[in-house]
Design brief:
- This is AraC family transcriptional regulator.
- It comes from Neobacillus driksii.
- Keywords: DNA-binding, Transcription, Transcription regulation.
- With 408 residues, this protein is an alpha+beta fold.
- It has 3 domains: 147 residues, Beta-Lactamase; 118 residues, no CATH class; 97 residues, Homeodomain-like (Arc Repressor Mutant, subunit A).
- The chain is 60% helix and 8% strand.
- The chain has 17 helices and 5 strands.
- 27% of the residues are buried.
Length: 408
């Protein structure tokens, strides 16, 4: 028993994750977990443990069970065997297999019939959990070996080699030659963040051109694309903070920031990153303009936030009204009065704006773009695209390619 408990602590410390050991009668031997687990999550896990036990009793030696519940919480379970007989299990989790996003949390809320006010509580809880993604397979393999093999207490041997104190290799006078350029760049950065904070897109775009001078690609030798991505990630963080100072709510900022973080990481060319730079400034400025400066009513702000996060899904006026908790007729009237657009028109414009961005990135066909931004058919996407932009999606793509070639 003491060895099993030691192994559970070993797993917990190694992976910073919850661990529970249960005997064959489902009685808890040890449970290492944070005390911030919502009661409904605990109840969900309890109901799932019986199913996991059935799988493990029949499993081959060296197997582990992987299961995800309706809260998108994942668990690994490894059998405890005594004399080739099932004697209990070690359950590792919960952990996440996808990044936390409002889209994910809304799905959890709907699936479990929770009130909308659970959004913030669940976000806080999910952010306290480890994100394992596909590494859960390797961790499962390690946990099997830890549980099955005898526990050996390791000893640490400290190295006796002395270490030199950290010393700066660059002295202040090394900056004399380029000091003026550096000062200009940081002044431009201040202006750029100021304009984003105020939702001033036109001046922010001008300031971006001044700010993006200088070549920092040397910071990751031999990998200029990674260096450029790192710079773009920094920009995403700064713009998010500036928009937050401009009055944009944290949950919406989180969604924008996460979307661009994924776009940046998946980019494969410098030109893609240039387009992402422009799109980030555009969207953060729009967020400030929509949620702070204009001072929309509470109902319209809630509708805007939900639409901006979920326009790629199958949503309409009734969907938005149900989610934000307002009467459909009242929402339609207030939205039209304050936005000079119907809810459906606004949804379509958001979809087309995103479609233009994806077309410019050039990684998807126009058919794939239409489906990705929320249209149920390619023909309908083409119809709406032409109504809003005055040209077809294919024409827009050709025009952008001509512009790129002209600037090449």
């Amino acid at each position: 028993m003491e060895e099993l408990i030691s192994k559970c602590w070993q797993i917990n410390k190694a992976f910073q994750i919850g661990v529970q050991a249960l005997d064959e009668e489902m009685k808890t031997i040890i449970h290492i977990a944070d005390d911030n687990e919502p009661l409904m999550v605990i109840e969900s896990r309890k109901s799932m443990l019986g199913e996991i036990q059935k799988e493990l009793v029949q499993a081959n030696k060296g197997s582990f069970c992987y299961q995800t519940d309706t809260f998108q919480l994942s668990y690994l379970a490894v059998p405890i065997n005594k004399d080739k007989r099932y004697a209990g299990m070690v359950v590792v989790g919960p952990f996440l297999n996808e990044r936390v996003s409002d889209h994910m949390i809304w799905n959890v809320i709907k699936q479990n019939n929770l009130e909308n006010n659970w959004l913030k509580k669940l976000e806080t809880y999910y952010k306290s959990l480890p994100l394992l993604a596909q590494s859960y397979l390797a961790i499962g393999d390690l946990v099997v070996n830890i549980v099955m093999n005898p526990y050996v207490k390791a000893q640490i041997i400290a190295s006796k080699h002395s270490s030199e104190k950290y010393r700066l290799d660059v002295e202040p006078n090394d900056y004399d030659q380029s000091g003026v350029e550096i000062k200009k760049r940081y002044e431009a950065e201040k202006k750029l963040l100021h304009y984003i904070e105020n939702g001033d897109k036109e001046n922010a775009m001008k300031a971006m051109l001044d700010h993006h001078t200088g070549d920092f690609l040397y910071r990751v030798p031999g990998n200029p694309l990674r260096a450029r991505k790192n710079i773009t990630f920094s920009g995403n963080t700064m713009y998010r903070i500036a928009a937050g100072n401009g009055g944009v709510e944290p949950q919406y900022l989180h969604a924008i920031s996460e979307k661009f973080a994924l776009n940046i990481e998946s980019a494969v060319t410098m030109s893609e990153l240039n387009k992402i730079d422009v799109s980030m400034i555009d969207e953060y400025c729009e967020a400030v303009k929509n949620f702070a400066i204009k001072g929309y009513s509470s109902v319209v702000k809630k509708a805007l936030m939900y639409i901006n996060l979920h326009f790629h899904e199958s949503i309409n006026l009734q969907t938005v009204a149900d989610v934000i908790g307002f009467n459909r007729t009242y929402l339609a009237k207030k939205f039209k009065s304050e936005m000079n657009l119907s809810v459906i028109d606004y949804i379509q414009r958001k979809r087309i704006d995103e479609a233009k961005f994806l077309i410019e990135l050039g990684r998807l066909s126009t058919t794939e773009v239409g489906l990705q931004v929320g249209f149920s058919s390619y023909n309908y996407f083409c119809k709406v695209f032409k109504e809003i932009t005055g040209m077809t999606a294919s024409e827009y793509k050709r025009n952008k390619q001509v512009e790129l070639e002209a600037h090449a």
